[in-house]
Amino acid sequence: MTPDGLDPADELYTLLIAVAPSPAERIRLAERLDGIAPLLLVADLGELRRLIPGPHQAAAAPTMGGDRALVLDSVRSRARCQGREVELTRLELDLLTCLTTAPIRVWSYAELHRAVWHEEGGEQRADVQSLVKRLRRKLHELGTGTTIDAVRGVGLRLSERRQPRVGRS
């Protein structure tokens, strides 16, 4: 408590937030803005959302319906389904977030590369395919019917496949 009876934790303060993709840009901003206000520097909006979730952003938002729903927890960087949970890297979470964005659609490799790596060119297809391979494995571990399908000549999309129940009568 301060002498005037206020709790310092309840006081409002200014926080300057800067988004800069390269470390060199973040260093330059930190040097230029030093002493102006508390400063939070992040590489992208995904990183900012993980650090400071907004009021509209639930900690866990379902992405597919049903009892086998895939739930992404962007705050903890995890995916959950049927009581099972797997940890996701930043790149995996960003890619899965793109694919689950409504409306569900086909994303080109170039679009996914820009959205996840925040850069043009490079080994777009190979980067995305490697990440998708790891994500498919994790989705399978969760036991969800959700998977990532390749659309020949176009790109990738999220789809839900129900495994048929095999039984004997």
Order of helical and strand elements: EHEHEEEEHHHEE
The averaged pLDDT comes out at: 77
What structural category do the secondary elements indicate? alpha+beta
- Summarize the biggest pleated sheet: 4 strands, antiparallel
CATH class of the largest domain: Mainly Alpha
Q: What would you call the shape?
A: flat
Task: State the fourth-level CATH superfamily of the largest domain.
Answer: Winged helix-like DNA-binding domain superfamily/Winged helix DNA-binding domain
InterPro entries: OmpR/PhoB-type_DNA-bd, Sig_transdc_resp-reg_C-effctor, WH-like_DNA-bd_sf
GO molecular function: DNA binding
Protein name: OmpR/PhoB-type domain-containing protein
Keywords: DNA-binding
Descriptive key words:
169 residues, Arc Repressor Mutant, subunit A, 4-stranded antiparallel beta sheet, 5 helices, 34% helix, 20% strand, flat, OmpR/PhoB-type_DNA-bd, WH-like_DNA-bd_sf, OmpR/PhoB-type domain-containing protein, DNA-binding
